[in-house]
Model the fold of this input.
Amino acid sequence: MTAHSRKTGFLAGWRNLMLWKQITLALVAGAMLGVVLNTTGNQDIAVAIKQIGVAFVSAIKMLIVPLIFVTLVCGMTSIGNLARMGRIGLKTILFYLGTTAFAISIGLLLATILQPGLGVDLQAASAMEPKPAPSIVSTFINIIPKNPIAAAADGNVLQVIFFALLFGLAINLAGDPAKPLRDTFEALNAAIMKLTEIVISFAPYGVFALITWVAGTYGLDLLLPLGKVIFALYLGCLIHAVIVYGGLVGAIAKLNPLRFFQGIVEPQMVAFTSTSSSGTLPVTMTAVQKNLGVDNSVASFTLPLGATINMDGTAMYQGVAALFIAQAYGVDLSMGDYITIVLTSTLASIGTAGVPGAGLVMLSMVLTAVGLPLEGVAIIAGIDRILDMARTTLNVTGDAACTVLIAKSEDQIDEEVFAVPHVLEPADIR
Done:
């Protein structure tokens, strides 16, 4: 066999792999390469490779505003019934807030048992100025865009969601005269989804580049001393995903949890490497509809909202990080402090954007609420990227779980599609 034929055979085999398998191989290969680059002192190569990942993330972010706006308008026009619309909205918000409180509690419990802060000598170089937590009133007022075009340009997802919901409602109320506009948005939605699939096809290369940079930059030197706090969060995220989300899908929706997790492998891996719930939204939209059979009328409402207000992973991170800092500084927290952490994290998650690093802002709010030293944030910031990978993956998993549960309750899920053990293949995006 010639070198050319071997190369051709490899490329053909690679192209025929399911996308989730391509991403998995890219993830492993990138991690291995990153560790090698770090141990050999070639971190600059990892930084250079990162640019491929940056380009991929930029392409995904390019889709966020048009995808949210078009799919939400289509979702609103397809629901039609105002009572059903309100019912879906109430279920979504209750699910997100309820699971967020569970996530923080799991984080606090694990941090209490594992005590990751004991024996860690915190020597913060500088304090971090806390940002005051937004009040509930100001949060709701800020949802209303003064200029929808500016909101879209600034990437203010909550404001885009608010305007899209009202615009879709107005199309419904206008009736027959607005039918051409409704048809136009359906056509736009089809085009946006196809563009999304094209961008997703480059996910393995973006994942490879990003994980190479993470492993090449941090290596093992930074991870080992703070390994317990990393382990606590990753374990908590795994428990929450399997027991809470998997349990709800199995017990409430009466669907196979294993099939659910298989169907969302792609958005989980993109979330793990990009650390952006909003950035992963296009991938999640495709996965829940094509792999899990969720109707667009539900997915187009619950997923954009979840990418903005569902922060289960981030909330769990608050519990683990707060106790880590308290233990490292020798501060004993009361039961009232624990309750304050749960309430502050749950409410603050509503106003925290689904972008990389937003968890640090929330953490400063939580630490301020219970009187813990803000200098601890400087140490957590050193491993924040590693922690962000796990918490964002949990956030996205929660978005998908909520969507499946609500779709099932509204009889808007194709269970035959859900039951088919497959994920998006390369052939689907040609």
Notes: The radius of gyration is 22 Å.
